């Protein structure tokens, strides 16, 4: 998968004129951004909205997932469940 992604980046960049040109075009269209710390919940992809959403995503993966809950309940100790 990594090689496929790398191949897409290399071939795509070569077809449009190099990584510098890709970066320049993305920057001109406002697609390059840093870490946004705006606490407004209606702004997409800020640090706070991603952190808040990430908590619920991890909770759904590890807190209520059938396989994880079964592992927790079948272990004798908390240490055994972690292992």
UniProtKB/TrEMBL annotation:
Membrane topology per record: Multi-pass membrane protein
Keywords tagged on the record: Cell membrane, Ion transport, Membrane, Sodium, Sodium transport, Transmembrane, Transmembrane helix, Transport
Signal peptide residue numbers: none
Keyword Nucleotide-binding: no
Recorded GO CC terms: plasma membrane
Major localization class: membrane
Transmembrane segments: 42-64
Source superkingdom: Eukaryota
GO MF terms held by the record: symporter activity
Name of the protein described by the UniProt record: Sodium-dependent multivitamin transporter-like
Source taxonomy: Eukaryota, Metazoa, Chordata, Craniata, Vertebrata
GN (gene name): LOC104997436
């Amino acid at each position: 998968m990594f090689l496929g992604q790398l191949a897409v980046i290399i071939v795509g960049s070569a077809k449009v004129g190099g990584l510098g040109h890709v970066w320049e075009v993305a920057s001109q269209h406002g697609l390059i951004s840093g870490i946004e710390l705006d606490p407004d919940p209606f702004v997409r992809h800020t640090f706070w909205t991603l952190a808040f959403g990430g908590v619920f995503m991890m909770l759904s993966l590890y807190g209520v997932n059938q396989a994880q809950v079964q592992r927790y309940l079948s272990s004798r100790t908390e240490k055994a469940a972690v292992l």
